[in-house]
Amino acid sequence: MKKITIAIHGGAGTILRSDMTHELEQEYTAALQAALDSGYAVLARGGSALDAVEAATVLLEDHPLFNAGKGSVFTHTGLHEMDAALMDGRTLGAGAVSGVRNLRNPIALARRIMQETQHVFLSGDGAVSFARAQGLPFEPDEYFYSQTRWEQWQSVVHTDKVLIDHTNEYKDEFPDKKFGTVGAVATDRDGNIAAATSTGGMTNKQWGRIGDSPIIGAGTYANNATCAISCTGHGELFIKAVAAYDVSCLMEYKGLSLDDAMRVVVHDKLVRIGGEGGMIGVDAEGNHALLFNSEGMYRGVRNSDGLNEIGIYK
C-alpha cells in the first residue's frame, strides 16, 4: 500500500502578509484546510485519487474567496465564464470544459465529460447542454456575485484591460483582492495519481478567452509513470510553456525527480518568458512539491506520514 498524499492550491501571485488582515488570513486558512481534509478523507477510506481531487476542488469552487465556481470573476460583459479540467494518471483519461455559465461545479462537469462521452473537451453552450442532460446543479447569476469582484470589474470595464489577480497593479484599490485558479493533486493507496484545476479566468476578459487551466498539458496533467500537476498563474505563459506536461517530460526523459523537474519549469523556464505563478505536484510514491515564483501561493498538503501544512506566503 502506497503513501497517500493530497495537495491543493487556491491561486498564486502578489500575496503579501502586509496586505492581509488577521481575520482574512484565518478565513483563507480554514477554507484551504477544509478542502484538504475533504480530499484526504476520500483517500483515507480507500477512495481513488480522482475522487479525492474532485472532492477537494468542489469545496474550493463553493467558497467565494477563490476565483473558481462561486467566487469567479466578471467578464467584460458582466457575466461569469468558468473553465475546468481533470486527468486520471492511471488511464490517461481526461475531461475539460471552458466557457460555461451558471454551473455550480465545473470540475464535476469535466469528470462527466471524461466518463460519459467519447470526447475530452467541451465548451460553451454545448457543454452547458450536456451538463443539464447529466442533471448537474446550476445556480442563478446572483449566486456568483461578490462586491469585491464587482468593484474589480468596474475599475476596468470601460477599458480593454484585464485584471490578472496575481499582479500588483491594482494593489491600492483592492488590498484584499483574491487570487486565481484552484486545483488539487493526489496519490491514492494503489499508487494512482490524478490532477484537477478550476478557474473563473481573468476579470474583464473578452471574446471567450481561455487560459491554461482546462488545457491538458498546460495547466493540468497526470500520468502514473511521472506526475500529477495543477498550475496557477498567468495562463497565456503556462500555455506557451506547456508547463504541466513539461514537468512530466523532464521526469520521463531526463530522469529528474518531481521536485527537480518542477523547479526547472517554475524557476527557470517560466521565468525566462515572464511567466508568473506556481504549481503543485505529486508522484506515484506519494512525494509532493508545491512551488511558485510569485510572492505567495495559497496552498496545502496532507499525507499519511502525518504531514499537514497550510501556506500562503513565500
From TrEMBL:
<dbReference type="InterPro" id="IPR000246">
    <property type="entry name" value="Peptidase_T2"/>
</dbReference>
<dbReference type="Pfam" id="PF01112">
    <property type="entry name" value="Asparaginase_2"/>
</dbReference>
<dbReference type="InterPro" id="IPR029055">
    <property type="entry name" value="Ntn_hydrolases_N"/>
</dbReference>
<protein>
    <submittedName>
        <fullName>Beta-aspartyl-peptidase</fullName>
    </submittedName>
</protein>
